[in-house]
């Protein structure tokens, strides 16, 4: 994890999150069923612990790729004049059959540049190794994510962004992911929020969040193949079908929280996801 020049013990007034389903909060539902919480809500709650007056907007829409986020979310984000903005996106691009990393990282860089030029501290993110849970086409996916992460690190350093290095923050563990292998569960989102808070220099009341998790128990090859087959049929096939049909899970959806509003009272970060 790198700091990118963040101030120690900063106090933020306006936090705006840009992104896709991860920033929207899938699959980390609130216990009362009022929608998804996710790492960005959790980070907003952490900011409110230091500044109860902080306002928070979340422009994320599931299924969005980086060029779409730039086109649809950047201008609304700039209009909200954040002093803290997060951009977590890219996995929807990386998993596509065709990938133009120059364009993807170029769009991320353009967003970081525009937000920082307006005075915002910008949070950027690498991805954990998805092959910890996705074992189909693992070598190809791992190579793409590694290349993406290297470019994001370089871009973040050049822009003075605050990098949340999820590749090195212990998020790549099966216990932190949902059965769809694409979204973190509640524990995973909590760990991501803690990593973001630490990168910002906020400190975490739960100081053990970064401790390594025990390795998952070994599984026999037959069990792995069976699990992969179930996953392909239940989760990956519908995803691929949407790609072939040219539709997205985010079609017809609007931003999760388009306006800057006061952050609700903080909720415990260890609730089941």
Notes on the structure:
It contains eight helices and six strands; from the N terminus they run E-H-H-E-H-E-H-H-E-H-E-H-H-E. With 273 residues, it is an alpha/beta fold. The chain has a single domain, classed as SGNH hydrolase (Rossmann fold). It has a six-stranded mixed sheet, with helices on both faces. Helix 3 (66-79) packs parallel to helix 5 (101-117). The radius of gyration is 18 Å and the shape is globular. 42% of the residues are buried.
Number of DSSP strands? 6
- CATH topological fold name: Rossmann fold
Number of contiguous helices: 8
- Strand arrangement, largest sheet? 5-4-3-1-2-6
What's a quick, concise take on this entry?
The chain is of the alpha/beta class.
Key features of this structure:
6 strands, Rossmann fold, disordered C terminus, disordered N terminus, 11% strand, alpha/beta, single chain, 273 residues
Q: Could you outline the blueprint of secondary structure elements for this entry?
A:
Elements: E1 14-19, H1 21-24, H2 38-50, E2 55-58, H3 66-79, E3 84-88, H4 91-94, H5 101-117, E4 121-125, H6 138-159, E5 162-164, H7 186-199, H8 221-245, E6 257-262
Parallel strand pairs: 1-2, 1-3, 3-4, 4-5
Antiparallel strand pairs: 2-6
Helix pairs in contact: 2-7, 3-5, 5-6
């Amino acid at each position: 994890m790198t700091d990118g020049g963040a101030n120690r013990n900063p106090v933020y007034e306006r936090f705006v999150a840009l992104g896709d389903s991860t920033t929207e909060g899938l699959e980390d539902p609130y216990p009362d069923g009022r929608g998804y919480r996710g790492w960005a809500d959790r980070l907003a709650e952490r900011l409110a612990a230091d500044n109860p007056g902080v306002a928070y907007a979340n422009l994320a829409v599931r299924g969005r790729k980086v060029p779409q986020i730039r086109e649809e979310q950047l201008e609304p984000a700039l209009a909200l004049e954040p002093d803290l903005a997060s951009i977590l996106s890219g996995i929807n691009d990386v998993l596509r059959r065709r990938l133009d990393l120059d364009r993807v990282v170029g769009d991320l860089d353009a967003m970081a540049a525009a937000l920082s030029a307006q005075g915002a501290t910008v949070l950027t993110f690498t991805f954990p190794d998805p092959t910890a849970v996705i074992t189909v086409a693992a070598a190809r996916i791992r190579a793409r994510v590694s290349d993406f992460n290297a470019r994001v690190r370089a871009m973040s350093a050049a822009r003075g962004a605050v990098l949340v290095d999820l590749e090195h923050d212990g998020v790549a563990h099966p216990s932190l992911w949902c059965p769809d292998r694409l979204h973190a569960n509640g524990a995973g989102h909590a760990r991501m929020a803690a990593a973001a808070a630490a990168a910002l220099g906020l400190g975490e009341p739960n100081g053990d969040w970064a401790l390594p998790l025990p390795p998952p128990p070994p599984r026999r090859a037959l069990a792995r193949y069976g699990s992969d087959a179930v996953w392909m049929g239940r989760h990956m096939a519908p995803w691929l079908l949407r790609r072939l049909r040219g539709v997205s899970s985010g079609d017809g959806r609007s931003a999760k929280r388009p306006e800057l509003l006061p952050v609700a009272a903080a909720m415990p970060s260890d609730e089941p996801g």
